[in-house]
Amino acid sequence: MIKEVNTRLRYIRIERGFALKWYFNHRLIYIWSPKSGDFDSPRAFHPFTDHINVNISINGVLELRNITQDLSGHYQCIVMTYEAFESKQAHLQVLIPEDDFILERIISPRFVEYRCAVNNIYPNPILNLRWSSPVIFSVTKYGLQGENGLFDVSESIYTSNRNALEANVSCQIQILNTNYNMKFVNPVKIKALHVPDIVILEDVNEPQSLYLDCDYEIHPKEKGFVMKWYFNEKLIYQWIPDRQPLALNTFKNMIDVNTTVNRGILIREISFNTSGTYKCDVQTFESTDSKSAGLQVVVPEDSLELQHVTKNGLVFCRCDCYNIYPEPKLTIMFGENFLLDVSKKVNVGENGLYNASMVARVHSIQANNSPILISCILTIPGTSYMRKEESVFYDTEDMSLYDNIMEEFYAYNYGSIQSNTAKLLIYIVLLLSYCTHS
User: Fold this and answer.
1) pLDDT at site 424
2) Where are the domains of the chain?
3) pLDDT of 368
4) Can you tell me which residues the record assigns to a coiled coil (predicted)?
């Protein structure tokens, strides 16, 4: 790199004793006097002997070479004769541009952080990190000068307020006493991640595809873009512009790479195993952003059944669901009250689907204002999936349902039964069993 420090000279040749001198921070570094004995040729002095080209530096032009940050400072040019003297000075700032200038957003369970950083720059810069958001941020700054004399500087703002995710953030580099000004506006940013919280798999034997979309925005000047998708923190997809997309790991044969480009991924066939957390990660050389969302594949129940009966001052309510995935949560409501005195049972069939039942009891004295609505509510924890079965309770004792239950129970375990007394004894055993397990 060659730079010139130039001054325009005008002098009258008839003046005697002309000399041109350059000073750096008040120290003589160069002298030239035309046709005046020892100084016919320009001379450079330490420490500028390796930085001034004396073969070109004549008649007011000082050519600097081998530029380093040490050449930053005040330069003064003095011209003199026996009859006159004049000088002017100016400041020269040698600037070594940064190797990296990044603005990134970091999301953790507790904080949202925006970090601006520059590496290997000279002189020590000023970072201005600005944001357009009513959210109040905490600010931290860091600076270090390396052995090479260059500076690494960063500034971070962070908050626990999740509204900060929508903030527009910019970072600016300034060098004092220069016109050097670099600005980074809005790092690569994911505007929305379109991953449904549940996908209803109506028929486990019928293939069903699913498209997951990552809507991002990127500054046109950013370079080194790459988009990645993760499933439960394992990389499953990567795309770099102008390259063939890659599907990886367990999703190698599940993602359609011929359709999946630019923003999202197309999963050819979803199943139980595609339930989990999906993360889209977009990054450039300067910035990065990521968003995550959970997806739950749901196989809806074949049936949801609710029964109730009254006996000896107790109301027994039973709720059953069959062939559902994943494991459901059953809740029984008696009027506006959730029944807590319950017995639960869950099992998994060979097909991987769940069967669940719940029996609850309540004293019929709580049903003085009958009729009362009884509800069985089925939910999948962590999703919006909900189903409900309802029945109306009247304050009467009905033995028919007990008879049916008892007959089924006895026929399965003992064969036919004729005695009403024996029937009642077995029925009491059933009631006691429900009470014991509650």
Assistant:
1) 44
2) 19-92, 100-186, 190-298, 303-396
3) 61
4) none
Q: What tokens does 67 get?
A: 């530029």
pLDDT number for residue 261: 58
Which residues of the chain are modeled with pLDDT < 50?
1-4, 7-14, 399, 402, 405-406, 408-438
Are 190-298 and 303-396 the same fold in CATH? yes
Residue that the structure tokens 């026929």 belong to: 411
Neighbours of 211 (CB within 10 A): 14
Cα–Cα separations (whole angstroms), residue 1 to 6, 36, 66, 94, 119: 16, 32, 7, 11, 21
Q: What DSSP assignment string belongs to 194-225?
A: E--SEEE-S-TTS---EEEEEEEE--TT----
Q: Tell which CATH classification among 2.60.40.10, 1.50.10.20, 3.40.50.2300, 3.20.20.30 matches the domain 100-186.
A: 2.60.40.10
Fold of 303-396: Immunoglobulin-like (2.60.40)
Task: Based on DSSP, count helices (H) and strands (E) in the chain, helices before strands.
Answer: 2, 31
Q: What is the per-residue pLDDT for 326? A: 93
Q: Residue 212 has which token pair? A: 């997951």
CA dihedral of 424, 429, 434, 438, whole degrees rounded to 10: 140
Residues 387 and 379: their CA atoms lie apart, in Å, by: 7
Alpha carbons 234 and 266: distance in angstroms, whole number: 17
Tell me which fold the domain 19-92 belongs to: Immunoglobulin-like (2.60.40)
For residue 355, give every residue at least 6 positions away whose Cβ sits within 8 Å of its Cβ, in sequence order, or none.
Answer: 320, 321, 322, 323, 324, 346, 347, 348, 349
- pLDDT score, position 40: 63
Task: Classify residue 186 as exposed, middle or buried by CB count within 10 Å of its CB (0-12, 13-18, 19+).
Answer: middle
Sign of CA dihedral 26, 31, 33, 39: positive
Top CATH class of 190-298 equals mainly beta
Q: Answer yes or no: are the C-beta atoms of 127 and 118 closer than 8 Å.
A: yes
Cis ω before 34 (30° cut-off from 0):
no
Which pair of tokens denotes residue 45?
């002095």
CA angle 195, 199, 204 (to 5 degrees): 140
- For residues 1 and 279, give the distance between their C-alpha atoms in angstroms, rounded to a whole number: 46
The residues near 13 (Cβ < 8 Å, ≥ 6 apart) are: none
Among positive and negative, which fits the CA dihedral 48, 50, 52, 55? positive
Cβ atoms 123, 180 nearer than 8 A: no
